[in-house]
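hey can u check if this looks right to u? its 345 residues, i copy pasted from the old doc so theres a chance i mangled smth
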Amino acid sequence: MIMLLEHEAKDVFNIRNIRTGAKYHVIKKDECDDMPIAIVYEPDKFRYLVCDFGDDVKVNLVEKEVETCEEIVSGTLDGSLWNSLDKLGVDVGIIDLMEEALSSSVDFYHTHNGDEFKLIFEKKYIDGEYVGIGKLTAAGYVTDGKANYAFYYQPTDKEEKAGYFDFEGRPARQSFLKAPVKFSRISSSYNLKRFHPIKRKTIPHLGTDYAAPYGTEIRSVGDGVVTAATYGSGNGYFVKIRHDKVYETQYLHMSRFAKGIKPGTRVKQGQTIGYVGSTGLATGPHVCFRFWKNGRQVNHLKEKLPQAKPMDAAELPEFFEFRDKLLLKLNNIPDPANPAHASNP
């Protein structure tokens, strides 16, 4: 029976992935029967597997019905974005979406107390139980007196172009991410006169150090091809990526490489290429991020990097109409200068 079940399930679910602790239900015609008529196994909270032992064994993987509700939230930054959202009872997983949506206008590595935010987003429920964040529909973020906006928009009949756009219709996705690790801090900046903490002498520091816990994912800041994934006595385990004829990036002191990362591997922006460590000459866990332009190492934080391709001009009127409706919703959210607020509209 087990071999037959595994054969029938091979195209929908690997029976060998059944794990202890997961929910399952045995269905019988009569509780005294030895043989069930079906078994229902829940591999996760979004799906269930039905093994039907009728005349023929049939196996189906069923997606549970998800209810999506719209939520609004506003607040003022106090300490960190994580703490500010947590105080509001908002799933902090939305921070990743905020970074994606506002990456072209807000540097989330240099936020300030008093920054204000307003968000419209989706929450997903299954059988009345909250199961996670959905789409971030619109976001407003005020820092240094400037309001920055992002809107999730899909041009008509162009699903592949769906994504976040700013107030003017420019895509949020830039050619390069601002940093190779999420929500870390800069522990040492690009500095031509830096005093080396191990060698105890002045040596130019041609990269930017991002401190993060051991094992934190390191992301490629742009699309490209891996040209090196090796070990050096000073650099430790490192990866180097060529993005185009002009730009290359390098990621030092990794604890290990991500699966499949080797010379010749094509990587996408945001793809995990390795994990934070302290191999080579390093006093603690961090990634030394180096940015190369035309063969020279430069300070990426001061570079004027190429912009992403803008939205087609013919699509802008429809986008502006969509944007203005969401902007009205954002403006109707209570001012975050008042007590922190989160509610359904």
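Residues 185-302 form a domain with the Glucose Permease (Domain IIA) fold (CATH 2.70.70.10).
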